[in-house]
Amino acid sequence: MIRIAVDCFGGDRSPQANIDGSLSALEKNKDLFVILTGDEAIIKENLSGKSYDSSRLEIVHAPAIITPDEKPTDAIRLKRDSSMMAAVNLLRKDDTVSGMVSTGSTGALVTAAVLRIGRLRNVIRPSFCPILPTMAGGIVGVCDSGANVDITPEQLQQYAVFGSIYLKTVYNIENPRVAMLNIGTEAGKGDELRKQAYSLLGNTPGVNFVGNMESRDLLTGNYDLVVCDGFSGNVLVKTTEGTAIELLKKLKKEIYSKTIYKVGAGLMKGLFTNLKEFMNYQNYGGSVLLGTSKVVVKGHGSSNATAVEKCIEQALGMERNAFAEKTESLLDRIAENKETTNG
Amino acid sequence: MIRIAVDCFGGDRSPQANIDGSLSALEKNKDLFVILTGDEAIIKENLSGKSYDSSRLEIVHAPAIITPDEKPTDAIRLKRDSSMMAAVNLLRKDDTVSGMVSTGSTGALVTAAVLRIGRLRNVIRPSFCPILPTMAGGIVGVCDSGANVDITPEQLQQYAVFGSIYLKTVYNIENPRVAMLNIGTEAGKGDELRKQAYSLLGNTPGVNFVGNMESRDLLTGNYDLVVCDGFSGNVLVKTTEGTAIELLKKLKKEIYSKTIYKVGAGLMKGLFTNLKEFMNYQNYGGSVLLGTSKVVVKGHGSSNATAVEKCIEQALGMERNAFAEKTESLLDRIAENKETTNG
């Protein structure tokens, strides 16, 4: 049995979406045990009348809620009785709990994960790896999308390591093509960080480094993982999302400008729905915080039940396929190589 | 008469697009004098049979061409007889020439501009400011989009200064709303660079700083100018472009998947053409290198005649409305304030 804690509060559609997503994941995954954290009375109210295997579900009462506008360090210190901190504490104290899912404050979650849950052996800093759909029909991971803004070449190397293992273990991508986000494709492009990281990435065992990638090529399907500092990664992911949203809005507005367009759009309704679903990041699960000693999945604040279910399945996939062990083993190998080279 | 040099070679559609764009700009702007640089015989061949005011056009023979794959420093040193360097030398040596337009190698152009043309008084480093269309029907400038990757807070401040003056002088935006690209909108977000720049921007005379902007909001129309380091600015601009292109490609592919979609799309043909034109950055001119002592406009490598014409008009607008004088005067004021504060 794989035990996953689900923080039921803090998201825009919580607790309903978080609870329904958990029940749906329970139904589909017979090796899953879910621990719901949050106000017990409210959770029970939301569970009532629904059918689920109660032998694989538990509630941990934690009535407080951390809101997105709270300062992360204050929130985790002052709200120990919050649904998020209850889940974090399960990971910290209970060896039988493998991971957690939250749709709450990103800042509080990262801070709590780093300070309370700890890192895998040799990991410098955990980092986020959201998954985006490519136009070729596949996916691409972006690591890091905002956990760490001031970083070193060695951190980019680690992103390539655990990002590759993540794509292998959860998405069955055999030999992930790893690119570094840069302002040109040639070697030697970019700032000092990129220049130093380039050769490091090319010499990392277990990493299939294919070179630099320009941001305009993110969705082409030519790459499986893109490594970047958290600042430009955040820009990359949010610009993609923002442009798609704004463009679809513009399309909708234009359609309503002429009757003939409305008729045409009526015939294309299925296509537009597909396109919207395709660009809906909720369908691709949450952003996993890679490098923590236990699995932490951050769902989008507006996650619906399907998105929460996907987040739980991401955590399950990592645990089933020994993400942590594989990562520590490869990082050990890299550390040994480095010692041999230096000594 | 405002004299602008046009580098006729180096772009994908050159020299035809560059020459036709120049003739079209000549026709519309009676205060314009154009100096075409490049292989004289080829230019004359392209001019033959066309009607234009020959008293406002001159050719400077320069047979070599700098290609995008050449190392910038080598190119500008070894190809002094190239069309690009001929234009650069006109700016450097001829006081009557106000600016230049090129659709050639970006790297060579930046290097040549910095080393040979020089900067306006007090400018730390010139930087690119491309213009993007917003979904609200207006435009937004992004400064810097890739000229400088390792920068200081003072550089971000200067981008805000000359970017604001540029939007005022060329686009008649009275009091441009300036935002700083960041990973969150709250003050205090981001890396060290952003933290330091935030208060600096808020205290800059002549700059209407409205705070941080998340990349997903670039196209909303809520901002007129976004300042950022060249690395994340490059990611911002190219991701916007890439996502729009990939999404329109996907749309096209889907349309061809079903007959009914094809029928619907047929009715919406005008809309799709408008949308494509709207997202076509060629319609918004080139990326101006702000901060050089004379105007340098970089057109996209694939610029057509319309794009080249727009580039020339950008240069004209800056010269007509005294961009250089206004920028130097405001930077002087900031330097004086700083001395007063420090002393």
Overview in brief:
The structure is a homodimer of 343-residue chains. By secondary structure, chain A is α/β, with parallel strands linked by helices.
Strand order of the largest sheet of chain A: 3-2-1-4-12-11-5
- Estimate the strand proportion of chain A: 15-25%
Which chains make the largest contact? A-B, 53 and 53 residues
CATH architecture of the largest domain in chain A: 3-Layer(aba) Sandwich
Number of domains of chain A: 2
- Structural class category of chain A: alpha/beta
Number of helices of chain A: 12
Helical content of chain A (DSSP H or I, runs of 4+): 40-55%
Number of strands of chain A: 12
The top level CATH class name of the largest domain in chain A: Alpha Beta
Order of helices and strands of chain A: EHEHEHHEHEEEHEHEEHHHEEHH
| CATH fourth-tier homologous superfamily of the largest domain in chain A | Isopropylmalate Dehydrogenase
The dominant shape of chain A is: globular
Alpha carbon gyration radius of chain A: 21 Å
Quaternary structure state of the chains depicted: homodimer
Looking at CATH, which topology of the largest domain in chain A would you report? Isopropylmalate Dehydrogenase
- What profile does the largest beta sheet of chain A have? 7 strands, mixed
Low-confidence stretches of chain A are none
The end-to-end span of chain A amounts to 44 Å
Provide the residue-averaged pLDDT of chain A.
Answer: 94
